[in-house]
Amino acid sequence: MKKLINVVIAIVVIIGVGFLVYQILPEYPQNFVKSFIQPLTDSEAKLRISQVQGIRYDKLDNATYKTILEKYTSQPAWVYEKDGTTEIVTYYGRSATITIKDVEGHEDHFYIKEPIKAVFKISGNNFTMDFYVKEILFDDALKEVALEQLYSGGN
Fold first, then answer.
1. How far is Cα 47 from Cα 45, in angstroms, rounded to an integer?
2. Greater confidence, 102 or 73?
3. What is the mean pLDDT of residues 90-106?
4. pLDDT at 155 > cutoff 70
5. Per the structure, how many domains does the chain have?
6. Closest CA to 54 of 64, 40, 63
7. How far is CA 56 from CA 71, 121, 130, 139, in A?
8. In sequence order, what DSSP letters do the residues of the chain get, joined into one string?
9. H-run or E-run covering 21
10. Which residue segment(s) compose the domain that 16 sits in?
11. Model pTM score
């Protein structure tokens, strides 16, 4: 009986330490870990993430957002959360290279090996997508250029 208690205590301590380490991780590593665990433990999250991944973007050969976002980025992470009646699916990727050149109203800018984030806000049958590079929110014109470059692999 004493051995069983020691084993249970050891398991609880390991789980506690793992949870504490997870809590102090920065946003991206924490979400990267969550993207593996969440679909296994939350069927609603798994369903919504796969639905968002399968949405087609008609401006790029009708490619899915999963294909566009993951094609030329590394360490993809998809995370789901619910905020009242709005559902949010967020994509995190690393090492994106995007060149902003000749876009009206914007200065030329080069992003090399930067983290990206796409936030899909779902309300009913409608969704919006906010796109970030290095935590900088892109407007619609820049978002379109960025998605095109992520899909095609470069400038």
1. 5
2. 73
3. 87
4. no
5. 1
6. 64
7. 15, 16, 16, 20
8. -HHHHHHHHHHHHHHHHHHHHHHHS-HHHHHHHHHHHHHHH-HHHHHHHHHHHT-EETTTTTEEHHHHHHTT-EEEEEEEEEETTEEEEEEEEEEEEEEE-S-TTS--EEEEEEEEEEEEEEETTEEEEEEEETTEEE-HHHHHHHHHHHHHT--
9. helix 2-24
10. 2-152
11. 0.80
CA-based angle 123:121:135, to the nearest 5? 165
Does an H or E element contain 138, and which? strand 136-138
Q: According to the model, what pLDDT value does residue 21 have? A: 65
How confident is the model over 1-57, as pLDDT tens digits? 888 888 888 888 888 777 766 666 666 677 777 787 888 899 999 999 999 999 999
